[in-house]
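Continuing the series of single-chain predictions for the mutant panel. This is the parent chain; the variants come on the following pages.
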Amino acid sequence: MKQSEEARQHAFAGKMRAALEGRWIVGGTPPYGYNLDPQTKMLVINEEEAQVVRMMYQWLTEGGLSIWQIQKRLNGLDFPTKFARLGKAKRNSGCWWSYSNIY
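Parent structure:
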């Protein structure tokens, strides 16, 4: 087997092992509602954001709101996205939340 193929398989096995252990292997910013524990590399619930996530699900399942309506409501209530909370967001067109942030 070529050295590059062995290296690829070794890297893949390491990522699979980390994922099976519950560690965040994607990199970048964790999903809304979670933070990354720097020690364990595992996702931990961010309770403040998780409350917003629970509201979104309630609006969707019980309120029958569409993703677009949820987006409009979140922006109207001025709930910041994770990027906005981290100071990384650019507020374009007055819209913090987008379809892809929610969906």
